[in-house]
Fold these 4 entries.
Entry 1:
Amino acid sequence: MKLSINAAAMAALAGALLACSPQPDTGTDTIEAAEAERFTVMVGGTQIGALDIALSGDGYAIDYEYRNNGRGPTLTESIALDAEGLPLSWTIDGNTTFGNPVEERYALVDSEARWTDTTGSGEALPDGPAFYVPQNASPYWLAIAARALMNAQDNALPALPGGTLRLDEIDTLDVSNGSEARSITAYALSGTSLDPTYFLMSDRAFFGVISPRFSVLEAGFEAEDERLRALAAEYGAQRYEDIQSRFAHDYGAPVRIRNVRVFDPASQALGEPVSVVIEGDTISAIDPLDVPTGAGEVEIDGAGGSLIPGLFEMHGHMGEDDAILNIAAGVTSVRDMGNNNDVLSALIDRIESGEIAGPRVFRSGFIEGRSPFNSNNGILVESEDEAVAAVETYAASGEFFQIKIYNSMNPDWVPAMIAAAREHGLRVTGHVPAFSNADAMVAAGYDEMTHINQVMLGWVLDEGEDTRTLLRLTALKRLPGLDLQGEAVQSTLDAMVENGVAIDPTLAIHEALLLSRNGQLSPGSVDYVDHMPVSVQRSARSAWADISTPEDDAAYRGAFDQILATLRQMHERGIFMVPGTDLGGSFAYHRELELYQEIGMTPAEILAWASHGMAEYLGVGDTLGSIEPGKRADFFLVPGDPTADLRDIKTIAMVAADGTIYFPTEIYPEFGIRPFVDLPAVRTPR
């Protein structure tokens, strides 16, 4: 259910109509007539769509569409450029991945820039050249921006609605389609989003965009996909290695965090002020405040703040940006719920070697049935024998503690898969395969259900309806009419209780899907959005789904109320829950935890559950999950008291991850995030 594959290149959601005035004839000096007309969209080497480019007057006409996991955007663009390659007008129509209609408009009229996107309308009088960054566009916007930036001083331009676009050349390389060799240049575009976007140009002509999992490449060069995605991973790794080298503090001496109140998950309370001492990756002592700092110790002033055990994000799909931003958010462990296996292995190797910052990762073996709607993670199978073999492959590697079954799996194969998992000591979790329901998966032997919608859909779908499509999200509109005390609901909950089946609700992503609205700030981002770069701020004011009528609005809001009411029943009945976001963690994980207050959990209960509770659930409670001598040094410092106000976990002053010290205030500016707190005072040995 993860939102995006490559956030900067794919953009997010789009807006309402702004009529564009007729544009002057500027000639075609900036138009790349030799550029390819078709580009192939791929995930993990599988072709899933296309990008088509055509010259049109003073600019371009663009069609862009892909489908992965039964969903994807459909966009049509029309762009006019001036002689410097800057947009004069830009229209984008279509729909986003989750169905929100796109009607984005930009126009430059008499030196005044005007635009409309999903956040509403805006205007500006730029002092000089400026580049409008579309909220929702095809990857080709990167090529248009690149050529404009090549013409600009220092390869930088003010961006509209905000920020500064910067183009950096990072590599040159050769590619081939078997009959033609080409020299291309890799660039990074940054300045309006959390991360740079890596893309490729052949001189001034677009060649493609690359990320570790996703690529868009000139048609005919698809065979270069794997190599180029690996390069994207290397480019990202170099960036994160640089951040690690500057901001990971390994003092080579014991570290004393003085004057902190330690949160104890057992009592669910903060203790009296103490000092916590780290040696290497381990907590060596918790001392009274009257114990002086040793001559060879580093001292960090906790200033009376709260020291909280590291948190567990239980529904991640890890990437490099997720890795370090989770550390900065106090998330020191992540359960990965499905990924490109090779990409994730390489990322884990970099984290464990200390090259880059990141949480420890608990891996799930993703298994999906092949269909026109399949996801392209993990292992794809076409028979029961292949499905069982996939389980055995994951078991043989020794790197996976559970398997995850996905939407296109034939439900008839699930019992054999579960039997194989049991034989090898693997847990089983997953979606409900299409044309089945949660009751059948509980009976088959699932240990855990993934996503609360996957459970609830079985109560409102008609026989034969296909959840491999967006129906698994849009059918939630039916929930307001559901009787939560009825036999269908109660029998499912009874079965989950009887069989000890847990639930991974991913509550924050359901809030985003059901409660986000165009032009309104999403409730999950209220506390932090003003600290974020402009692209994140725009997305936080955009709907996900097509909510075009008052009836839709009421149905989606009512659906979220029903989800909360169902989870409240589950909590009261003792069905075990695990907190995870499917949104990358970090700030979204903080929101995930906050939402559980709506089902009757207290802040202290939530902190204990998200730390020691998850360590116990994953079988690592003897080394993680609490702040005690002999345990791993995984914890974070906040100035306030999150047992009184859980929102305080957003204001983190320091994180210890396996004994390495990080200060989020140093890290956040690297991502265009304005820090939340001042740096704590640090005294090193003389």
Note: The chain has 17 helices and 32 strands.
Entry 2:
Amino acid sequence: MVKKFTFLCLLICGLLSLETCLPASEPEPPNVLIILLDDLGYSDLGCYGGEIRTPHIDRLSQQGLRFTQFYTSARCCPTRASLMTGLYPSLAGIGDFTRNKPHPSRGPGYIGRLNEACVTLAEALKPAGYQCYYVGKWHMHPKTGPIQRGFDEFFGYTRGHSHDQYDADYYIRLPEGRQKEIAVDSEKFYATDVFNDYALHFIREAQTKSPPWFLFLGHSSPHFPIQAPARRADAYEDIYRQGWDLLRTERFERMQELGLIDGPHWQLSPRSQVPVDGAAITNGFAGQKNPAWDSLAVDRQRDLARRMAVFAAMVESVDTGVGQIIDHLKKTKDLDNTLILLMSDNGACYEWGPFGFDGPSRKGTTVMRRDAELRETGGPGTYQSYGSGWANLGNTPFRMYKHFTHEGGLSSPLIAHWPDGINQTDRWVRDPAHVMDIMPTLLEITGTSYPSQRNGKRTQPLEGRSLLPTFQGTSGPTRSIGFDHQGARALRRGDWKIVWSKRTPTEVSWELYNLAKDRCEMQDLATTEPELLNELTNEWDRWARRVGVIWQQPPEK
């Protein structure tokens, strides 16, 4: 009996020794969740200084990273093209906007849809075994839609930049022939909520199959038309009746308290200029600064406060969905090995004047609601924006807005959450990054190679660079990043940035800023640093020619 016991002990010890000698198993590749908000301003989230309630997103940021210098391409579809492909927008085929037919004189960078030389995130990750899902706004042309470009399942819309959030029939399920799994009474349908529900549905579906999975949740909130159930907006109305001047100051102070603003090189800019455009759509303020809140009549203030309250309710509705997703991933023990990236596609949207508009973009007029009519704002069938005054609040402390290449147009929050892969969480990352960096980041963390060919043709080499070193607490080398959107131009090299504006009442010329000393672009150094200005403008010109930028836009036909 003693011999048998001794033998069993030796056998167990031998097996344990053998196990310790075996090589460690490769870590499982992470699941990937990208959450993209639409027209969210730099400081709208609570964790970036905003008064909008975003507790679930805030919790993600506290357990992850918050970037202070994350850049977009200034507008929705160029940013999406860059994010989806790891390229500058013009190299992906959407240099400025989607269009029904390619313009014959614009060149290959402006065909208005994804071209054949780019590879999407789904096309890159699917060969590595990823299940690929997309929910929400596509906006990279239906002819190059999500199913054609690598995604397995889709719910949302592929046509247009926005739509009525209450119009259930507009939102589609792809591939063709798929039935909508989530039944919502048409009177209760609200797209933001349904997008959240479909994100959870697709995650659950993916979890029944072999891991890993990739989900792109592209919300249309809070893009105009600003729409949200009235009861959700009610909670914000009194807050916004205080006005944009007071709230900009309060946001700036909170940003200091949070540590986002870390020195005197951040200054709260004056109220931004309303871009030059027709008097009807700029409410008569073209080329002037947004008006002081106290200068407005009480009825106008109340109408505007309700518009911003609806906008805030849209953002909070996205946050509610983020909370539902986090709770599910926790329960299923998938949260720690899921990389979550949350960002916006550009700065807050000024369209068109300080009072916003009612009716289709550029064709509507401004309506002022009073008394009981206020709660109709953002209801079914409405089509409204919140205007440049509130957009200026959204981009606190920066100048300008979406469409422009000043910091207010280009800068976005970026939150990265990945417990298994990010070191030193709950910190601000102050290195510049760009949406085109997402593709190389995902390729590196998943161990996936970038395809050299697509459908037998050579692919365009990547322009972005991986953020994995940033996740691990190190910085990459200095680089230059170019920008262009319909005549608004910029180039950032290290701490220096040049900017060319548009839609101004005076002649436009290049501006020069040292962002290390002047993050909010308040001191133009163009006249005091002429040699550096010339060097950087020449570099922008070389960049523009290399990536196929055409900055003189011909008239549409």
Note: Residues 298-331 form the longest helix (34 residues).
Entry 3:
Amino acid sequence: MRSGWKGPLQLQLQRLLPMLLLACLLAGPVAARAQVEAQAIETALSAEGDTARFPDAAPARPVALPDDWSRTRPGSAGPVWYRVDFDLAAPVAAPLLAVQMAQVCATFELQLNGQLLHRGGRMDEPYTLDCDQPQLLALPAALLRAGSNRLDLKVVGYPLAQVGSRHRAAALSALAIGPLDMLQARQRWQTAIQVTLPQALGATLLLMGGFMFVLGFFNRRESHLAYFGALSLGWALLGARLWVHEWPLPHATVEWLLCALLPLTTWAAVQFLLRYAHWRHAAIDIALPLQALLMPLTLLAAGTQHLYPLAMAWALLLALQVLGAAVFYLHRQWRDRSASFWLMGALLAVVAVSGAIELAAQMLGTPPAAAQLARLATPLMLVLVGLRLVQQHGQARQQAEAGRAQLEQRVREATAEIERNFRQLSELKIEQVTERERKRIAADLHDDLGAKLLTIVHTSESDRISTLAREALEEMRLSVRGLTGRAVRLADALGDWRAEVVSRLAQAGIEADWSAPDDLPQTLSARAYVQTTRILREATSNIIKHSGASHCAVHCQVADGDFQLVVQDNGEGITPEADGRLDRGHGMATMKQRAKQLQGQCLVESGPGYGTVIRLTLPLDRALESA
């Protein structure tokens, strides 16, 4: 029974033993890592000397880190040595160590336990300026030793008086020594804040500024876009040190060029705010370019040893100008009740606060985190303003396109209206000329032909000739009446027609029966009167010559918006053979054609032995005019 229990126990121990060994192997590094924490180095031993190693013979003194040379050693350009000692209990079991520096300005050299570990750039003038890039350097385990270890850091840089910004003055931040993987997270964060984000914003401003400048340059009515583009370009160029660390020019020239960008950027900022507020002044248009020329000249005259104080004085003056333009812009927006007042006010307020922090950092020195955030806020606000301007420009383009389409529609309508008016004027002109010609022809017919026909009527000894002349005179008078264009009252026209028809039928021995309303308020146009008279004459002539009728009834009325005239006889009617002859002749066809010209119709109803009925229908809106 004891041996039965021992077998399974041995089996379980054999299974657990490899796991225990693995846990022991892993516990060693974990324990060692737990013992190694990041050490913040805030003090160092400092000495000056241009030597290959730390100058032990030179007087050394402890300094607090970060070390701003403008306060601890004004006017010094180095080289300055810093010595830091740190202890390491077990270098073999410890994880890979590193040293991290948030800022080293300008060029440095790092030695570990007397061995050169890293050189950050050119150690002679012009120095490599990489002041914004945080540094993370691994400490090789082969150079580390148990117990005390020593870091020597040699730094060279430019004194504050010789740079245009405190951010480029010689200085050294605090150091941190610890596990590499632990410091890498801090390195990534600081690199993103100090380098990556400013570079991204600078590239955005460069692209957006170029686009806006071209857009505003070719559209002079939106000149504020060109000034904003110049402002964005100028601000992006002010951060050129983020991209280029070693310039092929002397340091003084590079600093002078960067400072010369300030009045140009201010010029663009002030004019952008004023033009965006739809205001301009001739004196400001002259003063700003003169100021952009005067500032570089004063910096050049002052020399490199007085660059910083003079540049800060100018920076304060330029900041006040931009602030004044911003206040003026917001005042105009408030007065005009603009919808962009609050948005632009908030953006400009952020820019003002970040500008104040930046000036305080330049003149007094503020915590690095606040200064760095302030340096990010201004380009970020410029990007937002640029997006707002692009949005407004897009909306303006859409409105302009809609307005242009509407204008084109109105132009097309106006063109069509002009064409219609021109056609009407042409028709009116033709009608006037035609009317004058009709009156002339009518006058000639009445005065010449009428007089001669009347003479024939009264002097002819032949009754036939006299009758023909009288009929020709009546036709001529009817034609003259149509040519003169005078309207005829329908009641008067019915009276004339009744007198003529009844008289002609009576002379032919045919009994006439005429029925029509007593008083009709409408009037007939001259053309309708003449054509209807001729249709009625042709119908009367056909009855007299061909019908053999003894009775004829004429009925007139206005019904359903039409003038209706019915002529009916009790003659022999029209046989099929005669119907064909009449259609081929001119009488019936002429009657129908005249009715058609008046937008009416003339119908003939007949049969052998049943007489003939002629129905004339004329629409009132064509043949009649309201009295």
Note: The CA atoms of residues 534 and 591 lie 8 Å apart.
Entry 4:
Amino acid sequence: MQKIHPKTLQDLEFPTVLQQVSARCNTELGKELALAITPVSDKEELMQILGQTSEYLASFSNDNRIPNHGFDQINSELGLLKIENSTLEIAGFRKIGGICKTVAIHQKFFKKFKEYYPLLFEKVDVLDGNTEIPDAIDAVIDKFGEIKDSASDELRHIRLQINQVRGKINQSFGAALGRYQSLDYLDEIRESVVENRRVLAVKAMHRKKVKGTVMGTSKTGSIVYIVPETTLTYTRELNNLEFEEKEEIQRILNQLTNHIRPFSDLLKAYQNYLTDIDITAAKAKYAHEMNGVLPEINQERELYLREAYHPLLYLSNKRKHQKTWPQTIKLHPENRIIVISGPNAGGKSITLKTIGLLQVMVQSGMLIPVHERSSVCLFDKILTDIGDNQSIENHLSTYSYRLKNMNQFLKRCNNETLFLIDEFGTGSDPELGGALAEAFLEVFYEREAYGVITTHYANLKALANELPHATNANMLFNSKTLEPTFQLVLGEAGSSFTFEVAQKNGIPYSLINKAKKKIERGKVRFDATIAKLQKERSKMVQTGTRLQEEETKAREEADRLEQLNSKVKSKLESYQELYDHNQRMIQLGNKVNTAAERYFIDHKKRPLISELLRIVETENSKRKKTSAKKAKEKQEQQQQVAQELEQQIKKVRVEKKIKQKKEIQAEKNKPRPVFKVGDRVRMTDGKAVGSIDVLEKGKAVVNYGIFTTNVSVDQLELVEAKK
């Protein structure tokens, strides 16, 4: 299967579904990747994903609940492991240990219940089990995130010394405290803590009587905080030991990092698995809330959605305690295209979106809210044209945009395509737009594509009735209450209830009756301004633009040819010079080689030098310097060629302008025909032929058979005079 276009996903509000799935993920990484879900192109992979989601959903209704899969992502730790001599922090080790233990729990669980969850067991069973990593981490770090004393013998020894020194500090401090207290040197609070050190609270007047290091004073200055001299020696020893402890801890963490480093790929696979399980669980929760199931995936090209709900509408109404109406629709080789008609606000568009969204969800590995006996097939392409697609950015009207969209449909549509089009053919003249829509629909039908469209056009309803593998459908509407029932019925077209709905909404009956009479006459009167589509001034502007474009193209072509000719000429000259130079070098080399061989035999320097000087003088005599006169002549010759080419271009431009002016003048001088009632005529820039019914004051009423129009005779040209 091919990848479905993002525009289709946007039209069907698939990103909103992804947001709701993402909200049901437990982990940040799962939430992020859930938003990036797209239709799966590989069928085998898709069936695996659908099966896994269905198995997870089944776990909600049995006693064998799947264990928790929560984890903290380790992307930064995986990045550090790729850097040589890097060291992980304690928090990173704890996250890695947690992931390993969670995967181990899943492996044990799914192995025990593989009969219930065969696909989920297969997913986790491909991962290599590993207890070495968590065991190594647990041997170093305790459950509170502290390095254990047993992490190394050296660390145990250092911490033992630290405890001993701290005992001596407390003992010496207690002795000093008792001594200075008995001498009444201390304040009532006796002691305090400054910079994590116990200090004596000495009265300011006795500060010089207490030996030690001053750490500060109180705000009032009445108390001076002093570390007793007897504890300073032990404090320095403690600082040294604490530094050694940090060094040993760093060494232990380095060693642990190096031990784990070879398993970085396995850790990445563990994280990917838990992320996938998180997304699978979120899909299952989403399906559980909207009664989603896994329909049959068939190979018979049949799409049978029985009692199908629109997921977003269903969940929205569920929160509001409102009823949602299901739809049943069936597409198969004998009924590939359905044309849905009926009144506005009757549910046509929501039915269309339901079909498309459910199909996209299935092909993205999600369960859907349909009857369990539903059956779906898979499509390579899903093409949509839904909603108001007016493009402000590209200055395109709705109809222009839809035409461009239809052009893409024509390029991509085949027998593996599902197309969904809302209000097919709207945006233009009803008759012309309907005819074009009919032509498009015939092409889609001939290519054996599957599709559903909504429309008000009678000709499309008639076409669906005529084509053997297409059918009409309608959204039921209560003709008495004029309320929609939101039920789709296959086999017959629907009425728009235009006048009935208008009457219900307070439109005067006299106005409705007048409109009905206009329909009965079968005539359509156009606004006179619409008939004046092209004027002489716009034609002149177009002609001038065309001439300017042709002139620009001619100038660009002349410049291009001139540059090409210059490049070719320059290359030929360069090649010739290179060839001549190489020939001279070969001859010169032969002469030098001969002289070298002679010297090799007789070892006589004087004849060698004489021969080399003779060769040099001979070569210099052959060198010719180009005179300034010849260079000037060459430059003048090039300028002359350029002037001749420019004159030829100007001549061509003048001839084109003269020819164009003659054609315009001839068109202006052409005598206007005298029209009579009954003459067959057409508009100067039109193709439809009609007959003149009335002539009055330079105006003519032209009858085209199904309608008449009032136009100026200046806009008409004679096709056939009345006999």
Note: The chain has a mean pLDDT of 82.
